[in-house]
Design goal:
Structural class of chain B: mainly alpha
CATH architecture of chain B: Up-down Bundle
Number of helices of chain A: 5
Order of helices and strands of chain B: HHHHH
Largest interface: A-B, 56 and 58 residues
Radius of gyration of chain A: 21 Å
CATH superfamily of chain A: Fumarate reductase/succinate dehydrogenase, transmembrane subunit
Helix content of chain B: 55-70%
Number of domains of chain B: 1
Strand content of chain A: under 5%
Oligomer: heterodimer
Number of domains of chain A: 1
Order of helices and strands of chain A: HHHHH
Largest sheet of chain B: none
Strand content of chain B: under 5%
Distance between the termini of chain A: 65 Å
CATH topology of chain A: 3 helical TM bundles of succinate and fumarate reductases
CATH architecture of chain A: Up-down Bundle
CATH superfamily of chain B: Fumarate reductase/succinate dehydrogenase, transmembrane subunit
Shape of chain B: elongated
């Protein structure tokens, strides 16, 4: 790799002869925290996501899926909390994982910034829409009008 | 480790993180990484695939509070055979990613299991495959008329 400039992101440039250069901001702990986050959120998600899949696909069945049953589910604060946790952890876990892949495959810093901008925007927008729906839904006023 | 850059032999350049030139598919298939490498690759592929699906899924589910009619229409798409098979793919992706992820977590926090790494990788993949058998039956048999829809007996 060129010795002239570092062309890459936080994971560090490949060093000639093997190995990696210390990431920029050498003493930073972000990667350590993200490493832990993936494992902790991963553990939580194993339970949350598999429960979610099993419930909707195997117990309820996709034939019976409609807005009525979803909104009934969201009327219960426990399930609302469950879904808030599910969407938050899933999107952030996925976003960090996507970051790893982008940093591995998109090596030019300009292209990397563009790809990251697009992916981050899509994921965070989706997360915010989901959280907004879950947190602002008012079952009382909704079901009163039906 | 050489202290002077110029003494180190030039590594073939490439766009991937290791800086090593890409090899062909034949070499990749015979590379010693074997199970560990393939589970890593599948872990990455399933993760990215599920993320792509989730972006759409979360946004579309959120629509339920603004327009339940729209949500009902969107969901009725998922009852068609093509989508139900696609859903099977998503189920497998999440399941494999979860089980392989669990293996990784175990290996990371209990490194003494590392000599058994290959067996653990096979175990994760096998458990995912085995669990998919009843899941596939439950999700697909109703399409073929071989079984009732899940939840039919619950009258929810």
């Amino acid at each position: 790799m060129s010795t002239a400039e570092t062309t890459v992101a936080a994971r560090g440039e490949a060093r000639r002869g093997g190995g990696y250069v210390q990431p920029k901001g050498g003493r930073g702990r972000f990667e350590v925290y993200s490493w832990f986050f993936m494992r902790i959120s991963g553990l939580l998600l194993i339970f949350l996501a598999l429960y979610h899949l099993a419930w909707w696909n195997l117990v309820i069945g996709v034939e019976h899926l409609d807005s009525q049953i979803v909104l009934e589910r969201w009327s219960d604060p426990l399930w609302r909390a469950f879904n808030v946790a599910l969407v938050t952890f899933a999107m952030l876990h996925g976003l960090n994982g996507a970051r790893y892949s982008i940093e591995d495959y998109v090596r030019k810093p300009g292209a990397q910034k563009v790809v990251k901008a697009i992916v981050y925007t899509l994921v965070i927008a989706s997360l915010l829409i989901g959280l907004f729906a879950l947190l602002t839904f008012d079952p009382a006023s909704f079901f009163a009008n039906r | 480790m050489a202290t002077v850059e110029s003494e180190v032999p030039e590594v073939p350049q490439s766009h991937v993180a290791s800086g090593v030139r890409n090899r062909g598919v034949g070499t990749a298939l015979r590379y010693k990484g074997r199970e560990g490498m393939w589970t890593w690759l599948l872990h990455r592929a399933t993760g990215l695939g599920v993320l792509l699906y989730l972006i759409i899924h979360v946004a579309e589910t959120a629509m339920v509070i603004w327009s339940p009619g729209f949500y009902d229409e969107a969901v009725s798409m998922y009852k068609s055979p093509l989508f139900r098979f696609a859903e099977l793919l998503i189920f497998f992706s999440v399941l494999f990613h979860a089980l392989n992820g669990l293996r990784i977590i175990i290996q990371d926090f209990a490194p003494y299991v590392m000599p058994r790494q290959r067996q653990l990788a096979w175990a994760a993949a096998l458990v995912a495959a085995v669990v998919m058998i009843p899941v596939t039956w439950i999700m697909v048999a109703p399409l073929l008329g071989l079984a009732e829809e899940p939840g039919a007996a619950r009258h929810i």
